[in-house]
Amino acid sequence: MTLVLALKTIHITTLIIWCAGLLALPLLLAGDHRNLAQSDYTRLRLTLQNGYIAVITPAAVIAVTAGTALIFLRGLYVPWMFAKLVMVGFLVGLHGLTGHAIIAIGEAPGEAQLNLAIPRLVAAVLLMAIILLLVLAKPDVPLTLLPDWLQQPLGLQSPFEAVPM
Ligand code: HEM
Predict the structure, then answer these.
(1) Least confident segment among 5-9, 82-86, 107-111, 121-125
(2) Which of 99, 119, 136, 149 is deepest in the core (most CB within 10 A)?
């Protein structure tokens, strides 16, 4: 129980940092930086890079690791959790796209596609809201939403003798 509490505390603390970063970095990217003085531009670029590499990505890795451990400790092999993981997958995709945008403003400042920052911000807010709804309401997600091929055994060899119940 104490371990679950500790992991949940770590999970929530680090996911707050991760999600805050996924909102703050696109906001910093969204401005028009093309007329900035060189020293200001360099400071902005280093803030973005260091924030992404040293703070937000490690927070994401810790949040996902603690969350994964919680699934096994709490035995949460349930549809709402799988739906949450799909949404988290999209959030991880956005994380990668933000990193790509940060590299782009460093390598090609004049051509960087800064106008994509706002759609990314909106997508991140929507995904976070859906994830929170799933994890807090734990709704009954019907398995009939899945395509047929995901509901049938494919006759593949399992690496384990018994699957987790
Ligand atoms: C791969 C990534 C993630 C995994 C594997 C994961 C897994 C988990 C698990 C197993 C729990 C415990 C649920 C329970 O005890 O009922 C949990 C709690 C929670 N997760 Fe995640 N999670 C992930 C990412 C996220 C993200 C991105 C958010 C928010 C945007 C989030 C928000 C929460 C919240 C708020 C709780 C506490 C819910 C409660 O105790 O009522 N998680 N997570």
Answers:
(1) 107-111
(2) 99
Kind plus residue range of the DSSP H or E element containing 41: helix 38-50
Distance 110 CA to ligand 1 centre (A): 40
Q: Alpha-carbon distance 49 to 31, whole Å?
A: 16
* Maximum pairwise Cα distance, the chain: 63
Question: Domain boundaries in the chain?
Answer: 2-150
- What is the reported pLDDT for 101? 87
Residue 76: alpha-carbon gap to chain centroid: 20
pTM attached to this predicted model: 0.88
What's the pLDDT tens digit per position in 24-45? 998 888 776 777 788 988 898 8
Ligand 1 cavity residues, CB under 6 Å: 8, 11-12, 15, 19, 63-64, 67-68, 70-71, 74, 76, 85, 88, 91, 128, 131-132, 135-136
Crossing angle for the helix pair 79-107 and 38-50, nearest 10 degrees? 150
Tokens of 39: 């020293």
Residue 124's contacts (CB-CB under 8 Å, 6 or more residues apart) are 19, 22, 23, 26, 91, 94
Whole-Å CA distances, 92 to 55, 71, 108, 139, 154: 15, 18, 24, 23, 28
